[in-house]
Amino acid sequence: MLVEGVLCDVTCMGRFYDLVEKRGSRWAIVLRQPIYETVRINAVVPGEALVLDTVILNSYPVGYRHLAYLQAGLGLPVKKDMPGLIGPEVDTLYARGAAWLAES
To answer: Does pTM top 0.85 for this prediction?
Structure first.
């Protein structure tokens, strides 16, 4: 993928937080929420300089700021409330899961 004119590889790392339940005789996913751990953008050609706009980059949450940078550059909407490893968004997600388990 070309990023700021430089051919790059993009790697996203994270995990899914799933709530599942049995419905009749089948199991179903009630919620599948990605938790973003890190995203990396690396130039394909070693030593080629990739320069990102740090003001734009730093306006996004840490766990997925590089992915958000790419999405915004493509004109796509970016959600700024996705859960990362720490923060109120992931705390809310875990609380939701705990409450869901308590109701089961």
So the answer is: no
